[in-house]
Amino acid sequence: MNVYRYEENPLLTPADVKPHRFDYEVIGAFNAGVTQFNDEIIMLLRVAERPVSDDPNIIKAPVLNHKTGELKVLSFHREDKTYDFSDPRAIKLAGQDSFVYLTSLSYFRIARSKDGHRFTVDDKPFLFPKTSLETFGIEDPRIARIEDTYYISFSEVSPVGVGTGFASTKDFVHVEHHGMMLAPENKDVVLFPEKINGKYYVLHRPVPKSTGAPEIWIAESDNLRYWGNHRYLMGLRPNHWDNGRLGAGAAPFKTEKGWLELYHAADESHRYCMGAVLLDLEDPSKVLARTNQPILAPEASYEVEGFFGNVVFSCGALVDGDIVKIYYGVADTSMACAELSLHEILASLTYLEN
């Protein structure tokens, strides 16, 4: 697979984004949803900020008070054995897998470009946490355009779990929040950009606790508000690059052979790569083919090294003829872009036996 990484990579880094308030610092500008709007390429950038700490032994956790809109800061000492600070992204109780606080709060900022290579970032947040289900932040937006409306699905994080928020805009100035779309634990939700046989479809990734694994499901709706007929779509593959967890990436796009979905997956060592799956045009619950090898893997220094290394994670792609422009987060830190051939991606698929 030929991969052309932009010479300007990383396109945006934390240093390119001004924090939304003086006592915070930007530690991540990554995992952006992407779309074309008028004559601009829009990246809806996930910006992760944390309170400035002058003491390296003090770990701080920002929490939104949804009633007042204010950010409260909790402080923890690194030597406190009650907690596990080994993951820089989260604070866990010692001996437990689930987190109790995040070390940063994420929201969305718009980055704009005329050429897709050089971006400027708006000064103010476009979408900021505000509800009781977003007190730990909002993350990883995806954008799907249906007619004149741009629909945004994203993760809402709070002490009661990670669910999927839903919002829409027509102009990337005014935005309407439609509440939680799918309840916890669920994320990596992407909307198909048109109705299929009278139905809207989404891919989503529930996280079962008793049995099952973090894998991709599909659901449908008549009205973009209420989702049902949930079906299992595709799962992990033992001894493959996608044997740890997987989820939908960019919004699916139509090809003559089917709906092509670019998905992310991690192996058991938490190395994140991108792959592709082909779904039936008339019934996207049918998987036709899938790549046996990643189409994009962390190899460049900015993909391997960062806040959480060995990660390429796309929330948006643009298609121009045979060119697929994959905009992707690197190492949970910055944004990059790579171009691949649509023909080569389709040729790399392995078709499933009927």
UniProtKB/TrEMBL annotation:
UniProt KW keywords: Glycosyltransferase, Hydrolase, Transferase
A Pfam cross-reference name: Glyco_hydro_130
GO molecular function, one term: hydrolase activity
InterPro entries for the chain: Glyco_hydro_beta-prop_sf (IPR023296), Mannoside_phosphorylase (IPR007184)
Record carries keyword Mitochondrion: no
The keyword Acyltransferase appears for this protein: no
Family under the similarity heading: Belongs to the glycosyl hydrolase 130 family.
Protein name per the record: Glycoside hydrolase family 130 protein
